[in-house]
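Reopening closed ticket. The problem is back. First fold of the pair:
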Amino acid sequence: MTYHFTNPSDEIIKSYLQEANTIAVVGLSDRTETAAYKVAKVMQEVGYQIIPVNPRLAGQEILDQTVYASLQDIPVHIDIVDVFRRSEFLLDVAHDFVQVGADVFWAQLGLEAEDAEDFLRQAGCERIVMNRCIKIEYGRLMV
């Protein structure tokens, strides 16, 4: 049997988006043609504080925001961690997510991982969204 993650209801996802101010975008690069860049730019334009996370670009700026090497380096509370890394890296991000005490773990469209979900739930995190685009969900639920 293949793994398939079950997302929270639309009402719950909408509440995550309404409560959030900061979105750390893991895997954001300065390449404007990437999905991560396009999504982050739109989320920034609608009012969220975007925090780029990319170890190769740490210290630089993307979307006029300082890039951090890891979630642990970010000096403010993170409401949503939006992950643009391949599914096999979701568990690594989940470990960092739990360490920093962020609120919502969000894996972008096409990304889900059973080991990451299991780890997050064992750590007490129930606020998980996978295989959904935050920009699409924002447009569907908030506009």
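Second fold of the pair, where the issue appears:
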Amino acid sequence: MNGAGVERVGGGLSTHVLDTALGRPARGVRVELFGIWGQERRALAEAVTNADGRTDIPLVARGELQAGTYELSFHVAPYFAAQPASQGDAPAADPPFLDVVTLRFTVADPAQHYHVPLLVTPWSYSTYRGS
């Protein structure tokens, strides 16, 4: 228990996707989570982002996160292909510049919550460790 008398149940893993070209959450992006153990890459979870750009449930529930290396794969090409082009915008590339954005990261302290968002346009992306 911590000093406030509340039991610490451990961390989890969540994500969200923001379309920074359109300035809104990215709905309908397929997200896959893999665990990396040596040369083994194991599928752990799969979800699709909702209207808020988030998955409906965390990819790893609180208390189930383990220390180690993970990969998040965001399937962004189908999302951008489905977006209507606004007047004056550059047309979407065919084939698209970005197809699947894969982020590999390490969980050092599984007692903490890890939030790994993707900020993406058809031509670039960035990420950070959120809370």
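Update: turned out to be a display glitch only; the data is intact. The first strand starts at residue 13 and ends at 14. The chain has one domain: 13-127. Please close again.
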